[in-house]
Structures are given as C-alpha cells and as structure tokens.
Design goal:
Helix content: under 10%
CATH architecture: Beta Barrel
Strand content: 35-45%
CATH topology: Porin
Distance between the termini: 34 Å
Largest sheet: 19 strands, antiparallel
Shape: globular
Order of helices and strands: HEEEEEEEHEEEEEEEEEEEEEEEE
C-alpha cells in the first residue's frame, strides 16, 4: 500500500486541480448565458504578439498522434526548411475543403537534408461532437515542443545558435477520431503505422555565436537507427480548449501510446503521460501558474521515447536532458507580478513589464519493466529525491530574462535564459 501511496496521491492532485473547472461548468451549464465561460485563447499561457498566430500548443490542440511541424523552420538537421501549408495550427483551418472534408498539411524542401517533406491530413466533422480523419507523414519531427515553442526554437537556432530540440524522421500513416462529450470532455483514438529514423546534424550556421547548434542529434536508439512501430493512441482531455470562469483556468490531458498489444513491432512498450496546466488569477496584478506532468513506460522502449528532464522549459538550472528514465514526475510553479488584463474575456495578457518567481521540481528513474502496471516502479520515489530549481525573471510582451539556480542538495548550476515565448 505504501509503495503506491505517493504516486496515487500525485495523480489525484493532478486530476483534482483540473476537475475544478468541470465542476464549475456542471453547476452553471443550465443557465449559461454566453458570459460564464470564455476561451483561454492563447496557446502558450501568456499572449506574446510575435508568435500568437504561428505557435500551436500540440498537447492541448486538436487530437493528433504525431507532433505538429511547421512549414517554415530552421534547425540543425533541416537547416532552412521552406514550405507552404496550414501547419496544422488551427483545428478549423481550411487549406482546402471539398464536400465538407477538410484538408490540412504542408509540403516543403529541407536544405540540410536535401529532400522534400510533407504532412497531410483529411478529416470529416459530424456536427460539433464527432470527427474522423487520416494522416500521411514523411517529415522531420520532434517531441520537445513542450520545452520551447517551435517558432522560438527556430529563431534561437538561426540567430544565436541554440537549438533546444532533438529530431527524428517520421514516415507513415494514421487514422484518428475524436469524440466531444459536452464542452469540456473529449476522447481521441488513433491507429498509427510509423517508421522512425535517426537524423544527423547538417548545419552549425547561425548569425551570432556558436551556441549548441553543432551538437550531435541523438539517434532514436543506441542499437538501431530505423524502427517500425504500429500503435494505438488514446487521449482523454478535460477543458482542452481552455474555457475560463472567473479567476480559474485549468486543463488536463491523459495520453496513452499502446505498442505492446499484439503488434509485431521492433519495440514492445506502452507509454502513458498526464499533463495539467492551471492558472489562478490572485488579483489584477498577480497570477499563479502551475504545470504538473507525470509519465510511465512499461516494456522496452527505444531511447527517444524515454522521459528526459533538464534545461529550458523544465528544470531550468540543470543540464539539458540530464535526468532520464522510464518514470517521470515534474512540476513548474510560477507567480507572475504585472498588470493583468482581459483575463475575464479569455485573453490572459500582461500590459507592460512583469516579474516572475518560480520553482521547478522533477524526478526520473529507470525501473524494472517486468510489471505491466504503469504505477509500478514509483515505489523508488521519495520527495527527498526531487530535484529543485528556483529562480526569477523579468519580461515584456516580447522577451523574457530568467535566472535559475539549484536548491541545496540538487545538481545543477546557475543559468541565464533569454525566452521569447515560454511554453506554459
């Protein structure tokens, strides 16, 4: 009982912080008059003019198994990638609509890899509650979009030589569906047939400074550079669109990637992730933000599927992806002091200069995967094992400076970050 008590309590905490929005909604739904609930419009918590129309919070956007890519980007494996398309940035975008079927995607050329890449999706909606679709892909992808935004990473890579993402090639197809149960609850499911391939670094060029853009792009696994995987994806989300009532906005998403269910795969594993974003307006000048994440992998997964904490957007006073494992817990707590406005209209914005103080906490570990339970292995976790980073920042609507340092007993070093679009 003691072995599962702590992780069970954490899961309950994550869910309870998000369920509050659902409870409020249920109490007021029958007398909804158009003012009780507003959409939390911005994709990455604070609205920054530079990237509002080009960023996409894939974790809480339209359900898709593969992460979102962009048709114009710069990184160390693609160098300059130039394409045209919708970037999957808007679930209601219509690059082409034929008889009620929506087509989205992009096609473009990678100057680093010297090849053409594409992503294409077709979907059909039945009212506002059900959607079916399919997707084809042959493109560079990354799972690190939650650390730093796609546009921000392209800018820092090209200008300063800092590329904070790791990449792989995803080629294959998938079928997906999404069912909406009321305003706040949605269920997604997909079948995915994907070939993952390792990519090498193809450029070290940047306008100013050497940065880290010359570092080796890691292979997808230490034993192979090409993996064929079939999987079933399942997603449960609560308040995914970010409806706000009063002073609270709360989102929850639970993802499951099931590869160990009878498929003939190169790797047999199941991966589970929980993410929660929570925002509480304390007064007109103070905002409390909390991101909670937990993850577990059963079976044997390739290296690039394992969890990694450290560096930008995670534990900000720790080396990049310093902590790795098949079990993960993380929290980012932050208080923002500034002139908040338009919160009640669903647009959380900062007018002018603002200050922040934050606490990052995290833990990862590799545990024996002989058990098929996603909760197994958390018995090795204790609160004394958490790594803690504290820090402060100052920012405007365009740029933000952060200084982070490890607490006593935690590994790491004092770090300075220049952020353009923080991702939570």
């Amino acid at each position: 009982m003691k072995q599962i008590f702590l992780p069970t309590c954490l899961v309950i905490l994550i869910i309870s912080t998000s369920v509050s929005a659902q409870d409020k909604y249920n109490r007021h739904y029958n007398d909804y008059n158009g003012n009780h609930y507003k959409t939390f419009y911005q994709s990455n918590s604070l609205a920054y003019d530079l990237f509002d129309d080009y960023e996409f919070d894939n974790k809480f956007g339209a359900y898709r198994f593969l992460p979102t890519s962009q048709s114009i980007r710069y990184n160390r494996v693609d160098a300059l990638f130039v394409g045209v398309g919708s970037d999957f940035a808007d679930p209601h975008s219509e690059l082409l609509n034929i008889s009620g079927v929506d087509f989205d995607g992009f096609i473009g050329y990678s100057t680093g890899q010297k090849d053409w890449q594409y992503r294409a999706s077709a979907s059909k909606a039945f009212g506002d509650w059900l959607l079916f679709g399919g997707e084809l892909s042959n493109s560079t992808a990354t799972d690190d979009h939650w650390r730093t935004g796609l546009s921000e990473n392209s800018v820092t890579s090209l200008v300063a030589g800092y590329d904070y993402h790791d990449y792989y090639r995803a080629e294959g197809y998938g079928l997906f569906s999404e069912l909406k149960l009321g305003r706040l609850i949605s269920l997604g499911a997909s079948y995915n047939y994907t070939t993952y391939s390792s990519l090498q670094t193809n450029t070290e060029y940047s306008f100013f400074g050497d940065g880290n853009i010359g570092r080796i792009n890691p292979s997808i696994d230490g034993s192979v550079d090409r993996i064929l995987q079939e999987s079933i994806g399942i997603q449960f989300s609560l308040n995914k669109q970010g409806y706000t009532q009063g002073i609270i906005t709360s989102k929850l998403i639970i993802d499951a990637e099931l590869s160990d269910i009878g498929f003939s795969n190169d790797f047999n594993y199941n991966k589970f992730e929980i993410s929660s974003l929570n925002y509480l307006k304390l007064d007109d000048h103070t905002l409390f933000k909390l991101r909670l994440m937990a993850g577990s992998i059963t079976g044997e997964s390739p290296d690039f599927k394992n969890f990694a904490l450290g560096g930008i957007g995670t534990l900000r006073a720790t080396g990049y992806k310093f902590y790795r494992g098949n079990r993960m817990l993380m929290s980012n707590a932050e208080v923002v002091f500034g002139d908040l406005w338009n919160f009640d209209d669903g647009e959380l914005e900062i007018d002018g200069l603002y200050l922040t103080v934050f606490l990052d906490s995290g833990w990862t570990d590799f545990v024996n995967n002989s058990s098929e339970s996603a909760l197994s292995g958390f018995d090795s976790f204790g609160f004394k094992q958490l790594t803690h980073n504290i820090g402060a920042g100052i920012g405007t609507g365009f740029v933000r400076l952060e200084v982070a340092t490890p607490l006593a007993g935690s590994e790491g070093f004092t770090s300075l970050w220049v952020r353009l679009n923080p991702t939570f």
